[in-house]
């Protein structure tokens, strides 16, 4: 049993390390999608709804501590996140959706053993990266010298981001958390806040 816990922890850590916030390409062209993002489809999903309030609270609690504007929940982004989460779970690995599919949104990813992780831990792993954060212009934002070590965190706290939509998908023995952010953060040469 102890070996399974270690394996699950290693998989989750690998998932977090592999899932960097967003790259330069994902940040380009965000303004073009603004009108589409502001009009939610109104479709609902039980699993997404169950976690929506908690995920939004965790994001906004961190932003509030820094005096940043609160994020709004986007059901449309949550639906997009859910679709991508199912694709990732079927593949059994994390990879970011192509920037052209994300239409100016940023993306944070997490993966772990199904039903083994509370949503607070999933989002908490994004936020825990703040221990390596160094306030500066992207990509010079990490005490480790590697921007990817803090890219989940900086996407959570990126001042210009206004909306978030996430989904926790359980499929094929995996829980996959996909969060989409509009507009995308981690923009080259800019500061998080």
TrEMBL record:
Q: Answer yes or no on keyword Signal.
A: yes
- State the SMART domains in the record: SCP
Q: Which residues form the SCP domain?
A: 50-189
Which InterPro entries did the record assign? Allrgn_V5/Tpx1_CS, CAP_dom, CAP_sf, CRISP-related
* Domain of life the protein comes from: Bacteria
Keywords attached to this Swiss-Prot or TrEMBL record, sorted alphabetically, are: Signal
Q: What span is annotated as the signal peptide, if there is one? A: 1-25
Q: Where is it found, in Gene Ontology cellular component terms?
A: extracellular region
Name by which UniProt lists this protein: SCP-like extracellular
């Amino acid at each position: 049993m102890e070996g399974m816990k270690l394996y699950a922890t290693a998989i989750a850590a690998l998932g977090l390390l592999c899932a960097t916030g967003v790259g330069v390409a994902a940040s380009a062209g965000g303004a073009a999608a603004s009108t589409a993002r502001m009009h939610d489809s109104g479709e609902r999903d039980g699993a997404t709804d169950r976690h929506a309030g908690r995920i939004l609270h965790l994001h906004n609690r961190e932003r509030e501590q820094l005096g940043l504007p609160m994020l709004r929940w986007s059901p449309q982004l949550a639906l997009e996140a859910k679709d991508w989460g199912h694709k990732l779970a079927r593949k059994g690995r994390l990879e970011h959706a192509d920037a052209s599919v994300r239409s100016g949104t940023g993306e944070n990813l997490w993966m772990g053993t199904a039903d083994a992780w509370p949503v607070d831990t999933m989002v908490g792993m994004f936020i825990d990266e703040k221990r390596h954060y160094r306030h500066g212009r992207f990509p010079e934002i990490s005490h480790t010298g590697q921007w990817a070590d803090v890219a989940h965190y900086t996407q959570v706290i990126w001042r210009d981001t206004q909306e978030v939509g996430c989904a926790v998908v359980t499929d094929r023995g995996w829980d996959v958390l996909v969060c989409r952010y509009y507009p995308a953060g981690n923009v080259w040469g800019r500061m998080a806040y």
